[in-house]
Amino acid sequence: MYMFTGFAMIYCPGWATLFLSSGLIEFEVDLVGSLTLRPWRLLGFLNILPGVVAFFLLLHLPESPKFLLMIGDTQRGLATMEWICRNNTGLPLSAEQVEHLRVYQDHVAVKRRKGKQNFLRSMLNDAMPLFRPPFVGYFVCACLVMFVLGLLANGLGIWYTAMRNRCNMRQGNKEGMTFCRVLFVPEIGPIVETESDLEAACNDSFLGFNDSFILGSVYIVLYNLCWLSLFCVHKKVMFVFSLVASSTFGFLLIFVTNYTLQLFSLVFLIAFPGIIVGLLGGSLLGFVPTYMRAKALCISLMWCRCGAAIGAIVVGSSIQDNCELFLLAIAILPLIAACMEGYLPL
Fold first, then answer.
1. What pTM value is reported for the model?
2. What is the distance between the alpha carbons of residues 110 and 70, in angstroms, rounded to a whole number?
3. Are 326 and 318 spatial neighbours (Cβ–Cβ below 8 Å)?
4. Which of 6, 8, 146, 327 is most exposed by smallest CB count within 10 Å?
5. What does the pLDDT look like over 177-210, one tens digit per residue?
6. Do 94 and 242 have their domain in common?
7. CA angle, corner 229, sides to 224 and 231, nearest 5?
8. Strands 35-37 and 29-32, how do they pair?
């Protein structure tokens, strides 16, 4: 499922490239009154179309039968198992299988407290066990790791295209220049006489989305390598390797002067944390009871998105003034996350 993040990274710039290169960028169709259909509206619709399709597909998926049986909803739980059985085997549940499911429900049923309390209080009471022993240490640690992963993969990643475009738009000789110098050290050209009738214009040109295609392709390849590695490598080894690799490429990004090395150092700094977000989310469920897994995953992903938002703001406001120090701090974060991840029972 998470692999399709890479396809999304190719899908969006793919449509943008089509619009920019084929002349579709210049049209205007009157719709209703002053409302017109312009390229940016059509492009926005095409970008949200997969999400709309996914929304309606998700409406047809049932709730987890294990969860339904644990909370005592026997009828829906058995109906869901019937649906799964028919789709997988073409046959209905046998009487013996139904009896096994009822015995299983008696064994794992969880008593839920119901009372006259508002919705927010009910949510708080349901989530509080995650912040008490024996789950609190592991869960808080997992949330902190998720925060770091979101900051790197999405907070820094949202600036990836702008950074690469700025590098590609840089004029003059870039040989021997580090990533930060290419981005932020102004080019000193020949001094020319000023012209009274010269009007400065904003340069918003773009050289293409090739680097975005590379990032999306790397995501797809790494997701498949990660999936294949699960058959022969322990998850904790994969976590630590990915974070150490991300940190290594972050340190390289500070010093390397080769164009290709700069590109792939930034790509792997972003991609390695991105691919293990899903893996950590799945591993988080291993030490949390079934009836609390949905809440645990939602809260941890909330911290991941919080890290993405804070990371995007911090990168945009701070990297220009202290680029090398900022990249150094970014490169250290995966090592901190790796230390915290070593504490988790993965």
1. 0.80
2. 6
3. yes
4. 8
5. 899 998 887 766 554 445 555 455 555 566 668 8
6. no
7. 115
8. antiparallel
